[in-house]
Specification:
Layout (H helix, E strand, L loop, with lengths): L4 H14 L6 H10 L7 H16 L3 H11 L22 E5 L9 H17 L1 E7 L11 H12 L5 E4 L4 H13 L3 E4 L3 H9 L11 H12 L12 E4 L14 E5 L13 E3 L1 H11 L4 E5 L3 H13 L6 E5 L2 E4 L5 H9 L14 H6 L4 H11 L6 E4 H16 L1
Parallel strand pairs: 1-2, 2-3, 8-9, 10-11
Antiparallel strand pairs: 4-5, 5-6, 6-7
Helix pairs in contact: 1-2, 1-3, 1-4, 5-14, 10-11, 14-15
Bound molecules: zinc ion.
Length: 404
């Protein structure tokens, strides 16, 4: 759909009048989206918007009002949505979290996703938690924890509570025992392949009906406090869900396993490690999470976590599942960046060529620019593709507006 110059001007004036004479290009783009502007046309329209904003910035408020009077019929009566939609049950504050994996420093993708939740915490008040989920000892990039902490401090103005899961192992063990005692969990010694067959055929495995005493003893054999010890791969703790669940992957899913690999932070202190559905549920319960915004590939995990919540008589938080944001022309993979840095392709995490928070910070971007970008991208379950150029055009504009 063609967007006329007058329409652009009308919306730019409307926005300028809202903000003491200064229009925000991002807000004008958002308004034009509601008018049918297509995402892939932003690049074409942006120079026009910038030109119009420049022109009207030369007018004083009175002149802007006069101009707007002439054009206001071109703007929709419907108030243009600014910022993120309201969350339900948020009036009394929220507790929200962002959980980057310990695979590297934060990149643009983290900055956007994290900022969406942070925007909400700022809006409603409450608590924002950045939680590093490092309970898989074999899959941790050791410097990541410090890198993430530094990025979080900058991006979220030192206001995020920074939590490292591997420092909270006793808590996860406590919940594991509670689940065993509630007979909602059992130690399974079937081989993986064998269990998969049981699950597929909706049959209970022989471990499922062990008595409580036996189960607690087997748990200790996993932990290494009772002999004979289970070796790595010999036993897992499973959640007793429903062997008839329509999705085979939901049937008695695992909660904890043995890994003898050395943990970069905890060393050899632990041999049993919670899997994410256990540690994430425990933390979300303990931290009183009220709203969760996460990537949509976690939908199945959320269903598993809901089952754990139910055992403890808790109501699962309001949850939203974000679609992926593809940035055409950028490869947003922390593990790939780690590899490339190791191989010397980049000088470090702050290499100007990398789309990391550190590198963008050095280039003069402010945290607010990312918050605004997050607001602009908004809550959407649909995957979005943005061109690298288009993304930076928007980000630059958000950033420029802050420096004024
Ligand atoms: Zn079994």
């Amino acid at each position: 759909m063609e967007i006329s110059k007058d329409k652009i001007k009308a919306y730019a004036l409307k926005n300028a009048l809202h903000y003491k004479g200064k229009a925000n290009p991002g807000a004008v783009v958002s308004a034009l989206f509601n008018e049918g502007l297509e995402k892939d046309k932003v690049k074409e329209v942006m120079p026009e918007i910038q030109k119009v904003i420049k022109e009207i910035s030369k007018l004083n408020l009175e002149e802007q009002e006069k101009e707007f009077e002439k054009l206001k019929d071109l703007t929709s009566e419907r108030e243009v949505r600014e910022g993120l939609p309201e969350l339900p049950n948020a009036e009394n504050g929220v507790v929200m979290r962002f959980a980057p994996s310990p695979s590297g420093a934060m990149h643009i993708g983290h900055a956007i996703t994290g900022s969406i939740s942070y925007d909400y915490v700022k809006k409603y008040g409450g608590k924002f938690i950045v939680r590093v989920e490092d309970t898989n000892p074999g899959n941790i990039y050791a410097p990541a924890i410090d890198l993430l902490k530094k990025d979080a401090e900058w991006l979220f103005e030192n206001k995020a509570e920074f939590i490292i899961q591997s420092d909270r192992m006793d808590l996860y063990y406590g919940y594991a025992v509670a689940l065993i005692e509630k007979e909602k969990s059992y130690v399974c010694t079937c081989e993986a392949e064998e269990f998969r067959k049981f699950a597929k055929e909706k049959k209970e495995c022989p471990c499922r009906n062990k008595d409580l005493k036996e189960n607690l003893k087997d748990w200790e054999r996993m932990l290494g406090t009772k002999k004979p010890l289970f070796k790595e791969g010999e036993a897992v703790l499973r959640f007793k869900s429903d062997m008839n669940h329509k999705n085979p992957a939901m049937r008695d899913f695992p909660l904890a396993r043995i890994s003898l690999e050395e943990h970069p932070r905890q060393g050899k202190k632990y041999r049993v490690w919670p899997l994410m559905n256990l540690s994430v549920s425990v933390d979300d319960i303990e931290m009183g999470m009220t709203h969760i915004i996460r990537a949509k590939e976690h939908r199945d995990n959320a269903e598993r976590q809901k089952m754990i919540y139910e055992v403890f008589g808790k109501t699962y938080p309001w949850a939203f599942y974000l679609g992926r944001i593809h940035l055409k022309g950028l490869r947003l993979s922390a593990s790939q960046m780690t590899k490339d840095i190791k191989e010397g392709k980049y000088s470090g995490w702050d290499d100007p060529e990398l789309p990391t928070v550190q590198s963008l910070k050095n280039k003069g971007y402010k945290p607010e620019a990312f918050w605004k970008m997050a607001e602009h991208i908004g809550l959407s379950e649909v995957d979005k593709t943005l061109d690298k150029k288009e993304f930076f055009l928007l980000l630059d504009n958000f950033n420029k507006n802050l420096n004024k």
